[in-house]
Write a structure and sequence with these properties.
The structure is a single chain. This protein has 309 residues and is α+β, with helices and mostly antiparallel strands. It contains nine helices and 15 strands. The structure holds ligand MTE. Its EC number is 1.8.5.-. This is Protein-methionine-sulfoxide reductase catalytic subunit MsrP.
Length: 309
């Protein structure tokens, strides 16, 4: 059984789906590192961070999206993102790293331990979904490119390709392109911070940010930058798309915080997509740091989270 060779498996739960998926994995020759194998499947060894909550349906996860490169309506990405070419895919890693380069995503994936984590992810409008992501910790990639000692932040950029992204080609400019995001280096190195390459054990659908997107489960959904082509280590706080667009509404940190209202709406409760009753379903109370306070609150000790929103 290939899986036995996976590292620290004893701490992880392996579900029947994991076994099914992993049969299609090829095991690399050393250290239990796995390579994504033939076919459109992703390894799925369940992470200790997985939630017990019921996942949102694949249909809802893939048909109610924000991806402004493909239009502003929630249904636009599912309609328009299919034309995006996601293979081959290069990621430029530059700035304050010992090993800068233009890395092929397939090469990055070779030698990564592939994780499955089920995260609760939220968005700015006060709706939430539970998404069974596949991917690997951002820290695994950053460690390999060797951040220099002065690096304090990580900046991310999305692809600019108006020929395949109609939202970038239109006369009416929705956002400054490329979409950009950033994290403090300690946030980026936290084991909860994931680079997702799939969901529900399959490759990431284009509308969800194929082939590589960020998932920071204790922050609002817009931090989850999609279709990443550049990751830069820097000593300056990176600019972020929504802060550029509306600085009074969106700050750099964007930690889920039910105690701080968005200027135009309360952030105390959320609507879980898929709950019966649709728009009229009972709203759920939102938890500080989206329920991950035990793991991440320490990153912000001594900071006024009203000021650093
Ligand atoms: N990334 C890019 N490149 N472009 C975008 O418009 N939208 C963000 C974020 N990442 C966005 C993006 C917003 S506002 C949200 S809420 C999430 O993606 C939505 O992710 P989902 O569609 O997978 O739920």
């Amino acid at each position: 059984m290939l899986l036995r060779h996976a590292p620290d498996l004893s701490e992880r739960e392996v579900t029947p789906r994991d076994l099914y998926v992993n049969r299609r994995q090829i095991l690399a020759g050393f250290g239990g590192l796995m390579i994504a194998g033939a076919g459109n499947v992703q390894a799925a060894v369940k992470s200790p961070f997985s939630t017990q909550e019921t996942p949102t349906s694949l249909k809802d996860i893939t048909s109610y999206n924000n991806f402004y490169e493909f239009g502003t309506d929630k249904s636009d990405p599912a309609r328009n993102a299919g034309r995006l070419t996601v293979k081959p895919w290069k990621v430029k890693i530059d700035g304050m790293v010992g090993k800068p380069g233009d890395y092929d995503l397939d090469d990055i994936l070779k030698g990564m331990t592939i994780e499955e984590r089920i995260y609760r992810m939220r968005c700015v409008e006060g709706w939430s979904m539970v998404i069974p992501w596949n991917g690997f910790p951002l820290a695994s990639l950053l460690t390999r490119v060797e951040p220099l000692s002065g690096a304090k932040y990580v900046a991310f950029e999305t692809l600019v390709r108006p020929s395949e992204m109609p939202g970038q080609a239109g006369l009416f400019k929705i956002l400054d392109w490329p979409y950009v995001e950033g994290l403090r280096l300690d946030e980026a190195m936290h084991p909860l911070t994931l680079l997702a390459t799939g969901l529900y054990g399959e490759n990431l659908p284009n509308q969800n940010g194929a082939p590589l997107r960020l998932v920071v489960p204790w922050k609002y959904g817009f931090k989850g930058i999609k279709s990443i082509v550049r990751i830069s280590l820097t000593d300056k706080e990176p600019r972020t798309s929504w802060n550029i667009q509306a600085p009074q509404e969106y700050g750099f940190y964007s930690n889920v915080n039910p105690a701080v209202d968005h200027p135009r709406w309360s952030q105390a409760t959320e609507r879980r997509i898929g709950d019966t009753g649709g728009l009229f379903a009972k709203r759920r109370p939102t938890l500080p740091f989206n329920g991950y306070a035990d793991q991440v609150a320490g990153l912000y000790t001594g900071m006024d989270l009203r000021k650093f929103y």
